[in-house]
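Quick one, T. Sequence first:
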Amino acid sequence: MQLRHSRLPLILAFTVLLLAVIYPIVQVKSQTESLRPGFNNAISSLQQAESAGARPSELSDLVVLLNTALDLNRQAIALKPDQIDKRAELLAQVDQILTNVQTRSTELRTTVAQRTSIDRMLTYIWGFSAAILGTICCTIILSAYQRFRIRRTFNMKVTLK
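C-alpha cells:
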C-alpha cells in the first residue's frame, strides 16, 4: 500500500515536467505558423547584415520596419473572416515592407563588406607606414650615435703617464 503512494508523487512530478517541456514548443509552433513566409527571409538577411559588421544605428531603421510588418501581420490575423479586402490590403503592405527590408539589408551588407575591406586595407597601410617610419627613425638615431662616438674619439686628448 505504501508503494502505491510513493509512486504517485513520482508520476505527478514526471507529468508536470513533461508538460513544462512540451508547452513552450507547442506555443512557439503556433506563433510561427501565423507569420508570412517572407519574415524568415527578412530576418535572416537582417542577421547576415549584422554579422557582416553593420552598426546598431544602421540596423535600427530596418528593425523598426520589421516591427511594423509584424504589427500589420497581427492586425491582419485579428480581422474577422468577412473583412477579406482589408486583410488582403494589410498583407500586401506586409509583403511590401518585407521586400523593402530584404533589399535594404542586402545593400547594407554590401556597404558594410566594402567598409570592412577598406578598413582592413587602411590598417595594413598604416602598419606599413609605421614600420617604414620606425626604420627611418632607427637609422637616423644609429647614424647620429655613430657620429657622436666618432667625434668623441677624435676629440680625446692623449696624455702620457
